Amino acid sequence: MSRRIQQLRELISTKNLDSVIISGPSNRRFFSGFTGSAGYLLVTLSKSLLLTDFRYVNQAKKQSPEFEVRQLVGNNWIPNIAEEYDLCEIGFEDQEMTVSTYNTIQKTICDYPKNVSIALHEISKSVDQLRSVKDPDEMELLKRAIAITDQAYEEIKPRIKPGMTEKGIAWDLEMIMRNLGAEAMAFDIIVGSGPNSALPHHRADDTIVQDGHPLVIDMGARYEGYCADLTRTLMVGEPDDRFQTIYEIVLRAQTEAKKQARPGMIGSDLDKIAREIISEAGYGDFFGHSLGHGVGLNVHESPNIGPNSKDILKEGMVFTIEPGIYLPVWGGIRIEDIVVMENGSTSVISQASKLD
Amino acid sequence: MSRRIQQLRELISTKNLDSVIISGPSNRRFFSGFTGSAGYLLVTLSKSLLLTDFRYVNQAKKQSPEFEVRQLVGNNWIPNIAEEYDLCEIGFEDQEMTVSTYNTIQKTICDYPKNVSIALHEISKSVDQLRSVKDPDEMELLKRAIAITDQAYEEIKPRIKPGMTEKGIAWDLEMIMRNLGAEAMAFDIIVGSGPNSALPHHRADDTIVQDGHPLVIDMGARYEGYCADLTRTLMVGEPDDRFQTIYEIVLRAQTEAKKQARPGMIGSDLDKIAREIISEAGYGDFFGHSLGHGVGLNVHESPNIGPNSKDILKEGMVFTIEPGIYLPVWGGIRIEDIVVMENGSTSVISQASKLD
Question: What are the structural domains, with CATH classification, of chain B?
Answer without folding.
Answer: 2-131 (3.40.350.10), 133-348 (3.90.230.10)
